[in-house]
Design brief:
heterotrimer, A alpha/beta, B alpha+beta, C alpha+beta, A: alpha/beta, TIM Barrel, 2 domains, five-stranded parallel beta sheet, elongated, B: 28% strand, globular, DUF2849 domain-containing protein (chain B), DUF2849 (chain B)
Chain lengths: 371, 89, 545
C-alpha cells in the first residue's frame, strides 16, 4: 500500500535509525543515472526520488531499476511534483511512500491507489500479472509464494490483494458474526462492500447473534450476505429431537455447519476467515494462507492478538456483539457456548467439558470423517 | 484591438470574454482591449477559476478576427469551412 | 477477434471510473488544466479549435458489427452525426462535451472498446496490416501479437510518462501495409529456417518535423522474448529520450543521436538483465491469444464474379484484394467520395457497414492507415450484394489506391495545431482529378495532405505530398514528391516554394499528366518518379496555369 507520508513518527523513526546505524536519507533527482543512484543509495535507510515535474517519468524507471537491478530493499519515497493519479504506478514500480508537494489531496490519493484491481504486466511490486492468472494455477508451490508475498503486509493489504487481485470475484469471507468478527468485516467493507460474506445460520444461534448480524451488516454497508442453513430433510432425520448437540456434537456441527458450507464452497476459490493464532489450540501455528481440501483459506488476522483487536474496535467505534460484555469471548451456538473463566483461553467457553475445540469447518474433510 | 478568447471547459465550445467578465459565444459581445490593458485582463482571466480553458488574446478588426491568425479565429467563430452535409447550419 | 474476459472488462471499467473522477476533480478545481491535460489525453480527449475531440481506439484496426453500431450511436447521440477514421486506424469524434465523455466510454465498454492511451506521452494504439488474417501474401497474422503488446502496454506503470508519444506497428505479410519503417518500433514477422516465427525489430521511424526511417536493430527476436525486448527499448528511451525540447523528444532523435548500433547495444544490455524473468511470454498465453484470431472456412468456394451490373466490375478491379482462403475476397470500402472529406463516415453509414459485416463479412471490418474501411472476409458469391448496398450508402467509390483516394488530416478546419486547411485542398484535388478523368489512367498513386508539420496525414510518405503552411496569414502549400509507406519506404522531398491553395489542384493534375507522358509500360507513378527524378515533375508544378 502506498502510504502518504504524513506521519511525523515516521521521520523520527528514520532519524533514530540514522543515529543508531549511521545510515542516511538520500534524495536523488529522478533523472539521475541509475548506476549513480545505486551508489548513492548504498547504505541509505531511505531513498527519496524527486520528481521535478509529474510529467517527467524518469523517476519511475529509476525506482524500478533501484529495486530490480541494484537490489535496493530500503524505504523508497517519491517526492516533488506528483498527482494522486500516479499512485498505482508509483506503488507498482517499487515506491513505499509518497510525499507530494501538493499536500491537501489525501482522499484523492487514497482513492487512486486502490483504483485498479489487476495489472496486465509484471512490475516491481511482484503482483501477479493478468496473463499468469489466466493460466491454470500450478499445484503446490503457490502456497509458499502466497505466504511469502503476504509476509510483512498488514491485514488490509492482504485483504486488498486477495479480493481485488489474486481471487477477484471468487473469494468470500466466512464470518460467524461473533465476538471479534467486526474487525474483518469492517476491513472488507472498506475494500469492496459487495464481497460475499458467508454466514452459517445453524438454527441454534443466540438471538443476539442474529440481531448483531443484521445490524452490523447494515452499519458496515455489506451488500452480499450469503446465509447458509442446514438441509431440512437431513435435520429432520438426524436431529428430530433437537438433542443432537448433546448426543454427538461433532455430528451436530457436521449437519449444521460443515455440510452446508461444503455445498456452497464450490462457488469460491478462496475463503477469508478471522482466525487468529492467539486463539490457541490448533490455531497456534496458523499460516496466513493455507489450503484445505484444495481450497484456499486466507487468514489475514492470523498474527493479531486481543489487544490489537480491541484497539481496532475502539479506533473505528465498532459495535460489540451484545454477549461480549457478558464474558463471552468466543460465540458459537447457544447449546455449546459458555462465558470464559477469568484466566481461560479465548475459546475455552466452547464445548466446555469436552475435548472438542473446533466445529470442523476449518478441517480437512477426511479428518472429520475419521472421527 | 484585442479580445480574449478561450474554450468552455464543459463542452469545449469557443467563448469570448465580455466587459462584465462573463463568457459569450458571440464575438460581437467581446470586450475590446488595447495594449497593456489587454495583457492585464488576460492575466486576470488566466488567474480566474471557472469555465474558460486556455484564454489568449486575439486581434480584432471591425468586430471580425484580424491579424495574421485571422483565418484560424474565423474558423473558430463560424465552424469548419468544409461545407459537408454533416456541418451545422 | 479478441474477446474480453473478466480482467479486461474490470480494467476498462475501472479506467472509466478513474476518468469520471478526474473530470469531477477538474470541474471543481482540485485538478488544474495543466494537471488534467495529460490525464484527459491518456483517455483520448483533445481540446481542438471549436470543441473537444474524442479519439476512440480501434486496436489493430479490427471492428465487429456491435462495435460499429455503437460508434454510430455515439455519433448520433453525442456528436453531429459523423465520425472520422484516422491514419492510425482509430476513429475520432469532433464534438463531444467533456462532461459526456465518461458516459460515451460506458457505451464503448459494453462492446469492448475504449479510448485508453490514444493520446498522451505513452504507448499508443498498436497497428497492424489491415488485411491481417486474410491477405494472400500473409506470413502470419500480426494481430495476436498486436493484442499481446496492447495488453502489456496498457497502464504500464513505468512507461506512462514518456518523453513523448510512442507508436508501435506489427506487420505480418510480405508487403508492409502497417508502415513499420515509420513507427517508433516496427515489428516485421519473419520465419527462420526451421519455419519458426520471429520478429525483425526496427526502431526510430517517425514523421512530423523530423521525418526518419526506422533502423533495424535485430534480425530475429523470438516470441517469448517479445515483451522483455520491448521493455528494454522503452526503458532506454524513458531514461535517455530528450525532455528539454518537444520537437526532439521522440525515440527517432535518440536513435539518430546514438546511432542505431549504440542504441541497439544499450537495448541488448538492458535486455540481457531482464529477458529470462517474469517478462518471458509463456507459450500458453501466446496460444490463448492466437486462438481468438482464426480464419473463416468456406465449404463451397465460388469464383470471383466476372459479370454483373455496370460499375461492379470496375469496383472489383480497384477495391477487391485477393484472399488466402479460396472462395473469399477482401474489399476496400472507400471513404473518399469525390469531393468529400477523406475518412469521414456518417452514423447511418456506420450502421450499414455493421449490417454488411455481420451478414456478409463474418462479422468483421477493418480500419486502414489510408482512412478507408475493409471487409476482410466476403464470400465471392456475396460480392455483388455487398456492392449494391455500398452503392446505396454512398460507400462504393471504386478508387482504392487511386489519385482520388486521398489521405488528409483534419487540418485548420478542426485542429488547433494546424497552420492551414487540408480538407478543402483534398476535396479540390479529388474533384479536378475526377473532372479530368485521370484517376483510372494514372492508376496506383498515393496523395496525402497535412495542415501542419506534425504530419498526421503522413504526407512525408506519400508519392505526392502536400503540406500546408502559414505565410503571414495566408495559406501556402508545399509539394513533396517521392515518399512511400511500405517496404520501399522513403521520405518525400520538397520540390520548391509553396503554392497558393487555388493553384494546388492544377499543379497536381499537371504532375499526373507528366507521368502519363513519360512513363514506361507498366510503370507505376512512384517507379517513374524514381527513374527520372523529381526535377522532371518540378517544371510542371510551377508552370503558369
Amino acid at each position: 500500500m502506498l502510504q502518504l507520508e504524513r506521519n511525523p513518527q515516521s521521520r523520527k523513526r528514520v532519524e533514530a535509525q540514522m543515529e543508531a546505524g549511521g545510515g542516511a536519507v538520500v534524495e536523488i533527482p529522478g533523472e539521475t543515472d541509475w548506476r549513480e543512484a545505486a551508489e548513492q543509495a548504498r547504505g541509505a535507510v531511505q531513498v527519496d526520488i524527486r520528481f521535478a515535474s509529474f510529467k517527467d517519468g524518469r523517476g519511475f524507471s529509476l525506482a524500478a531499476l533501484l529495486r530490480e537491478r541494484a537490489g535496493y530493499a530500503g524505504k523508497l519515497r517519491a517526492v516533488g511534483d506528483l498527482i494522486p493519479d500516479q499512485a498505482m504506478h508509483l506503488k507498482r514500480v517499487g515506491f513505499d511512500d509518497v510525499a507530494p508537494d501538493n499536500d491537501n489531496l489525501d482522499a484523492d490519493w487514497a482513492r487512486a491507489r486502490a483504483r485498479f484491481s489487476h495489472a496486465y504486466q509484471p512490475a516491481q511490486d511482484k503482483r501477479t500479472p493478468v496473463f499468469r492468472h489466466r493460466q491454470a494455477a500450478p499445484a503446490g508451490d503457490d502456497l509458499a509464494a502466497l505466504n511469502a508475498r503476504y509476509r510483512g503486509l498488514d491485514a488490509m493489504e492482504i485483504l486488498e490483494d486477495a479480493i481485488r487481485n489474486e481471487w477477484t470475484g471468487k473469494i468470500a469471507m466466512l464470518s460467524s458474526f461473533g465476538a471479534e468478527a467486526a474487525v474483518g468485516l469492517h476491513m472488507i467493507a472498506q475494500i469492496a462492500p459487495d464481497t460475499p460474506v458467508v454466514f452459517l445460520d445453524t438454527g441454534r444461534l443466540f438471538a443476539q447473534t442474529e440481531q448483531y448480524q443484521r445490524a452490523l451488516s447494515e452499519q458496515l454497508g455489506l451488500t452480499n450476505i450469503r446465509v447458509l442453513a442446514p438441509d431440512s430433510a437431513e435435520a429432520a432425520a438426524e436431529d428430530g429431537d433437537d438433542r443432537l448437540w448433546q448426543r454427538n456434537p461433532d455430528a451436530c456441527c457436521a449437519l449444521r455447519k460443515v455440510r452446508p458450507l461444503a455445498r456452497a464452497i464450490g462457488d469460491y476459490d478462496a475463503l477469508i476467515t478471522g482466525r487468529k493464532r492467539f486463539h490457541g489450540g490448533e490455531r497456534l501455528a496458523l499460516p496466513v494462507v493455507e489450503r484445505i481440501d484444495g481450497r484456499i483459506r486466507v487468514n489475514p488476522l492470523a498474527a493479531w492478538d486481543a489487544e490489537r483487536v480491541n484497539a481496532y474496535f475502539k479506533r473505528f467505534d465498532l459495535p460489540r456483539h451484545p454477549l461480549s460484555d457478558m464474558g463471552y469471548a468466543s460465540i458459537g451456538c447457544w447449546p455449546c457456548t459458555a462465558p470464559v473463566e477469568d484466566d481461560g483461553d479465548v475459546r475455552s467457553g466452547r464445548w466446555r467439558g469436552r475435548d472438542k475445540t473446533e466445529c470442523g469447518i476449518h478441517a480437512p474433510a477426511e479428518r472429520i470423517a475419521a472421527e | 484591438m484585442k479580445a480574449i478568447t478561450a474554450n468552455r471547459l464543459t463542452d469545449g465550445r469557443v467563448i469570448y470574454r465580455t466587459a462584465e467578465g462573463q463568457w459569450s459565444s458571440r464575438l460581437d459581445e467581446a470586450e475590446h482591449l488595447d495594449g497593456d490593458a489587454a495583457e492585464a485582463r488576460l492575466a486576470q482571466a488566466e488567474a480566474e477559476f471557472g469555465i474558460a480553458v486556455g484564454p489568449y488574446l486575439i486581434d480584432i478588426e471591425d468586430e471580425r478576427p484580424g491579424g495574421q491568425k485571422w483565418r484560424r479565429e474565423a474558423i473558430r467563430l463560424t465552424g469548419p469551412t468544409t461545407g459537408s452535409t454533416h456541418e451545422p447550419a | 477477434m479478441y474477446k474480453y474476459d473478466a480482467y479486461d472488462h474490470a480494467l476498462v471499467r475501472e479506467r472509466i471510473e478513474e476518468f469520471r473522477d478526474q473530470v469531477a476533480r477538474r470541474l471543481d478545481g482540485r485538478l488544474t488544466e495543466d494537471q488534467f491535460k495529460p490525464l484527459r489525453l491518456m483517455n483520448g480527449v483533445y481540446l481542438q479549435l471549436h470543441a473537444y475531440m474524442l479519439r476512440v481506439a480501434i486496436p489493430y484496426g479490427t471492428l465487429n458489427g456491435p462495435q460499429l453500431r455503437t460508434l454510430a450511436h455515439i455519433a448520433r447521440r453525442y456528436d453531429r452525426g459523423y465520425g472520422h477514421f484516422t491514419t492510425r486506424t482509430n476513429i475520432q469524434f469532433n464534438w463531444p462535451a467533456l462532461v459526456d465523455v465518461p458516459d460515451i466510454l460506458d457505451h464503448l465498454a459494453k462492446v469492448e472498446m475504449h479510448a485508453i492511451q490514444t493520446s498522451g506521452n505513452c504507448i499508443r494504439n498498436v497497428t497492424a496490416d489491415p488485411f491481417a488474417g486474410a491477405a494472400a501474401d500473409e506470413i502470419e497474422d500480426s494481430r495476436p501479437w498486436a493484442e499481446i503488446i496492447r495488453q502489456w502496454s496498457t497502464f504500464h506503470p513505468e512507461f506512462t510518462f514518456l518523453p513523448r508519444k510512442f507508436k508501435i506497428a506489427v506487420n505480418g505479410a510480405r508487403d508492409d501495409r502497417a508502415g513499420i519503417r515509420v513507427h517508433d518500433i516496427g515489428l516485421q514477422i519473419v520465419k527462420n529456417e526451421a519455419g519458426e516465427t520471429g520478429f525483425e525489430v526496427w526502431v526510430g521511424g517517425g514523421q512530423g518535423r523530423t521525418p526518419r526511417l526506422a533502423q533495424k536493430i535485430r534480425d530475429f527476436l523470438e516470441p517469448r522474448d517479445l515483451l522483455s525486448y520491448l521493455t528494454a527499448i522503452l526503458r532506454v528511451y524513458n531514461q535517455h529520450g530528450r525532455r528539454d525540447n518537444l520537437y526532439k523528444a521522440r525515440i527517432k532523435i535518440l536513435v539518430e543521436a546514438l546511432g542505431a548500433e549504440e542504441f541497439g547495444r544499450q537495448t541488448e544490455e538492458e535486455w540481457a538483465e531482464i529477458r529470462e524473468g517474469e517478462l518471458e511470454l509463456p507459450a500458453a498465453e501466446i496460444a490463448r491469444i492466437r486462438a481468438f484470431f482464426d480464419r473463416p472456412a468456406v465449404s463451397k468456394a465460388q469464383p470471383v464474379p466476372v459479370s454483373g451490373k455496370p460499375g461492379f466490375a470496375g469496383w472489383l478491379r480497384r477495391n477487391r484484394r485477393a484472399h488466402q482462403v479460396e472462395g473469399l475476397s477482401s474489399v476496400v470500402i472507400s471513404l473518399k467520395p469525390v469531393g468529400g472529406t477523406p475518412g469521414d463516415i456518417t452514423d447511418d453509414q456506420l450502421d450499414i457497414v455493421a449490417d454488411l459485416a455481420e451478414r456478409y463479412g463474418f462479422d468483421e471490418a477493418r480500419a486502414t492507415p489510408d482512412q478507408n474501411l475493409v471487409l476482410p472476409h466476403v464470400r465471392n458469391e456475396d460480392l455483388e450484394t455487398v456492392w449494391d448496398a455500398l452503392v446505396a450508402a454512398g460507400l462504393a467509390t471504386a478508387n482504392a489506391g487511386l489519385a482520388t483516394d486521398i489521405v488528409s488530416c483534419p487540418g485548420l478546419d478542426y485542429c488547433s495545431l494546424a497552420n492551414a486547411r487540408s480538407i478543402p485542398i483534398a476535396q479540390a484535388i479529388s474533384s479536378l482529378v475526377e473532372a479530368e478523368g485521370l484517376a483510372e489512367p494514372v492508376g496506383d498513386v498515393t496523395i496525402k495532405i497535412d495542415g501542419c508539420i506534425n504530419a498526421c496525414g503522413h504526407h512525408h510518405v506519400a508519392h505526392i505530398g502536400v503540406l500546408g503552411v502559414d505565410k503571414r496569414g495566408e495559406e501556402f502549400y508545399q509539394i513533396t514528391l517521392g515518399g512511400a509507406f511500405g517496404n520501399d519506404a522513403s521520405i518525400g522531398g520538397i520540390v520548391g516554394k509553396g503554392l497558393a491553395g487555388e493553384d494546388v489542384p492544377g499543379a497536381i493534375v499537371r504532375v499526373l499528366k507528366t507521368y502519363l507522358e513519360i512513363r514506361d509500360e507498366n510503370e507505376r507513378f512512384i517507379d517513374t518518379l524514381r527513374r527520372v527524378g523529381a526535377d522532371a515533375f518540378k517544371e510542371s508544378i510551377y508552370v503558369a496555369a
